[in-house]
Amino acid sequence: MNNLTDFYTQLFESHSVIKTIGRENRKKIETENSEEVVKEETLTNDAHILYLLSFIDILSNDYKDVIVEIFKTMQDYQFKSVASVSENDCKDTKRDDILQNNYDYYRKINLYDHTLNCACITVEMLHKQNTPAQTIFISLVISLLHDFGKSSLVSKDNMETKKERHHQISANFAKKFFQSFRKNKKKSFVTNDFIDLIVDVLRSHHNEIKIKNPFLNVLIDADMSARAKELEFLKTNIIKKVMK
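^ that's the sequence the OP posted. Answer follows.
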């Protein structure tokens, strides 16, 4: 385990872009819609970044560029200062009871942590199934983008109607993101079909009527698994604090 940790540490230190991604940004977002995230230790991000780095190193440079650009965008929107659930999630009767009943716990998980938790679980699940790298890449992209709409800054620029929920706003953002990425980076693999696939899965994430798509199934499973592990982590640590 120590050898593996040392290997990942060296990989982390040698990857210049991740130095930028991993740098702590202590500035707080002050907007009318922003919610204060409870300052409590959650799941560490370094291990997540290293794990994802170890995977994207086997991808083509084009695919790496997409993942790195999403990491940068998460930093730009300061996901560490955004709660991974909002009061609207709690009030939404269409959401799972586990989220509503444990709202106070999940408020302690910021959006950055939850996004990376979901991404790592996605990669881990598909690796165990010997899934082709290109398929894992698409699922990884979806998992990283699935909650962008929870950011008030993202929502401000990408909400098309006032009735849209966060997963629909995430879909709107993803469409603009890849259209811009294709134009600026000159990436031919970002086709209209590729964009439509990502957008359709994101838009259907919390819909009552789901589209039949294996990528959607992976997202739902990874998201639920991440939430379960986060809840277990928080409850266990709270019990430890009480017993001290």
